[in-house]
Design a protein that fits this description.
There is one protein chain. The chain has helices spanning about 10-15, 30-40, 65-70, 75-85, 105-115, 125-130, 135-155, 175-185, and strands at about 5, 55-60, 85-90, 165-170, 200-205, 215. The longest helix has 19 residues, at about 135-155. The protein has eight helices and six strands, in the order βααβααβαααβαββ. Helix 3 (about 65-70) crosses helix 4 and helix 7 crosses helix 8 (about 175-185). The chain is globular.
């Protein structure tokens, strides 16, 4: 069965809880180590992410995501995938456009909105209210739905393992949480508590080998590798 995995990067701003959308920041040293550790653990022949089974790697255009992709596949593997035309940089995976909230922390956003006389009846919620001078939840959902359609076109003919059609997404915290909602057909406004570890891997798939039954993999076994 085809899977879709995802990973997200760590920077100084994400470490401090600042909303990081279009600002270009490099991975921190710890962030690089996290991605390298993930790559060592799950990327390689017979592993969870087997390059031979990959149909496509979709990557956000932000520098931190590009660095994450290169580190995840240890440079040489990334080059081989790029040479095979399997790595695609797409704005569909760019982080939520935070607009006026770029670089701010949640408490700063709440203070700003309070001073503007907003949120009289309830507290600001990005999933409902979007971002001032940035993207609405509906705008984010629209670009993710377009990407999901492309992924399902890739995977639909291979639901029974006809050929490797795994897809990797390398993106960002809010965007990947939004992706999970849209993958499952849930409205953006629906409360769904999800956590994304920097450099971590999440897995989405399908029930009953059916592309019309998208699912969240909440537990899975890792491939067995006999000791030499």
């Amino acid at each position: 069965m085809a899977d879709k995995d995802s990973t997200t990067p760590r920077t100084e701003w994400t470490k401090n809880g600042r909303y990081t959308g279009s600002t270009e920041l490099d991975l921190t040293g710890i962030g690089r180590q996290q991605v390298l550790g993930t790559g060592e653990a799950v990327v390689g022949p017979g592993n969870l992410i087997d390059p031979a089974k990959l149909a496509r790697v979709f990557v956000s255009p932000r520098a931190r995501a590009q660095q994450t992709c290169d580190l995840l596949f240890h440079g040489k593997r990334a080059n081989a995938l790029a040479d095979a035309g399997k790595i695609t940089t797409t704005e569909d995976l760019a982080e939520w456009d935070y607009g006026a909230y770029e670089g701010l922390m949640t408490r700063e956003i709440l203070d700003r909105r309070r001073q503007q006389g907003l949120d009289q009846e309830r507290q600001w919620n990005i999933w409902k209210d979007g971002c001032e001078d940035g993207e609405s939840a509906d705008a984010v959902a629209a670009r993710l739905d377009a990407l999901i359609s492309k992924i399902r076109d890739i995977q639909a003919p291979n639901m029974h393992g006809e050929k490797g059609s795994d897809v990797i997404l390398v993106s960002h915290g809010h965007l990947l949480r939004a992706f999970v909602k849209r993958w499952l057909g849930l409205p953006m406004q629906m409360p769904l508590s999800l956590m994304v570890e920097p450099g971590g891997i999440g897995v989405l798939s399908y029930e009953h080998h059916n592309v019309l039954e998208p699912a969240l993999m909440v537990g899975m076994a890792l491939p067995f590798k006999p000791q030499a």
